[in-house]
Amino acid sequence: MADKEIVFKQIFEANSKKIFHLCYGYTGDDDAANDLLQETFLKVWQNLDKFRNQAMISTWIYRIAVNTCLTYLRSEKRQAKDELTPDIAESTMEEVSDKNEKVALLYKCISKLEESERIIITMVLDELPYNEIADISGISEGNLRVKIHRIKQKLTELYNQYERL
Length: 165
Description:
Largest sheet: none
Mean pLDDT: 80
Helix content: over 70%
Structural class: mainly alpha
Oligomer: single chain
Radius of gyration: 17 Å
Strand content: under 5%
Order of helices and strands: HHHHHHHH
């Protein structure tokens, strides 16, 4: 095995569970999450030579995954509008549980945050320890706690705006 393959395999083993979790959080669907996981790691493989160690590799992978998920969600919305007749769309919407709607709304709100905030709050939702999130994001744990508090406030405001609509 070439060095790149060995390094890639280690990166995949160390990060794939977290990235699957992230993708599942955005989609709520095993198959879509697996597809997005594969797409993310395909991009990691293709760009591994360009990775310059300015950030931790896990942060870099999180960024790729978040952007891959957001691109997917944008294209899904376009397809859903094009493909569904009003009747099917209506009955499908009724089948979606209240909890799923709230989770979908939460992720819609998260997508409105800045990239660094999206990455941090996703890791919080993935229940990563704060010290690990601090390492990945390259900020002190104290600063991270303040940032998380502000992100949660921002998310609450966004969520409440949508709830009123």
